[in-house]
Amino acid sequence: MSSAPYDAIADWYDAYLRENPLYAEVILPGMLALVGDVTGQAICDLACGQGFIARELARRGARVTGADLSEKLLALAQRYEASEPLGIRYLLTDAQDGAALPSAAFDGVTCGMALMPIADLRAALQTVRRILKAGGWFVFSITHPCYQTPRSRWVTREDGGAAREVSGYFDERYWTSANSSGVRGQVGEYHRTLATYLNTLIEAGLALERLAEPQAAGRSAQAVPGAREAPSILLVRARAV
Ligand SMILES: C[S@@+](CC[C@H](N)C(=O)[O-])C[C@H]1O[C@@H](n2cnc3c(N)ncnc32)[C@H](O)[C@@H]1O
Description:
- The protein is an alpha/beta fold.
- It has helices at 10-19, 21-35, 52-59, 71-83, 121-131, 183-186, 194-203, 218-223; strands at residues 42-46, 63-68, 89-92, 106-112, 132-143, 151-156, 162-167, 173-175, 189-191, 206-212, 233-240.
- The strands form three sheets. A seven-stranded mixed beta sheet has the order 3-2-1-4-5-11-10, with helices on both faces.
- The longest helix is centred in the first third of the chain and has 15 residues, at 21-35.
- It starts with 9 loop residues before the first helix and ends with a strand.
- The model has no long low-confidence stretch (mean pLDDT 95).
């Protein structure tokens, strides 16, 4: 695996983000709801990719720094910034050390759908804690670890409805999906239990404030009817203590 696997799929991911209703209908609104008013705040969008979340925060009045490991996604982010100048600063850095990011500099940190591909979760969350000011907030979204395991799938109930069948939950490991039309089929990610995510967060000095498990509606529920039955995304808000 390359040190920046998203470099190989940057253009594909950019198109996928724009076409997949889950991002526009579930992930972005869910994150913005947990973030709240950002006017005047200094925010780091960690593992920002092509800047999908960073741009929305900047449009709402935040001073945004985007950081990512993928040069190609950052180049796309810079291209969006050139066509819609929002004052976003983009930095190339590994979230596991955040070397390019100053300490105690941000009121808030966002991390959208990006803790799963990061190998060292503890190191990434320690970076989040280090770059936050005391009392600063952290909002992240991940694929729901209870329902999106390496061995889970949609099945049809006897009454014809959709249900999620889950196994392999305790087997924490890197995996790629057989579904090559999704992100996991392209680059893979780490499966971790819910307890691993939340305990590592707490151990990094980030106190849990709120969780959200949005129920899909609209186009995302049409695309995946089972998403009305079981959440595919988990969103978390925490605070630096
Ligand atoms: C699914 S994408 C999400 C991107 C963006 N947050 C969004 O919502 O579109 C995962 C991102 O994590 C980044 N990433 C993976 N490992 C990383 C690391 N160690 N440090 C920084 N970024 C990383 C990838 O380059 C990619 O941009």
